[in-house]
Design brief:
Layout: H1 3-6, H2 12-31, H3 36-43, H4 47-54, H5 62-72, H6 76-80
Helix pairs in contact: 3-4, 3-5
């Protein structure tokens, strides 16, 4: 079992999607010059959880994505744009 399988990512297509989403979240956060710890606190999610999302190693729940989008002051649609 590889590392990603432990977190519920079962195939390469899903893995690529979560990595892309995580990279987008990280890019948007860094563009706003917000450090990971502060951003996680402001979004009311764990720093480790945010780290795992940004690395594409977990499938974030809708509520978590809503909190992240709110923290970035963008819509979920904008967050999920390719």
């Amino acid at each position: 079992m590889d590392n990603l399988s432990k977190f519920g990512i079962v195939n390469r297509k899903e893995e690529k999607y979560f990595q892309k989403l995580g990279a987008r979240i990280k890019q948007l956060r860094e563009e706003r010059e917000i450090d990971q710890k502060s951003f996680a606190f402001d979004c009311e999610i764990g720093r480790t959880q945010l780290y795992m999302i940004e690395k594409g190693r977990t499938n974030p729940r809708l509520l978590t994505l809503m909190k992240i989008a709110d923290g970035l002051e963008i819509s979920i649609a904008e967050l999920l744009k390719n």
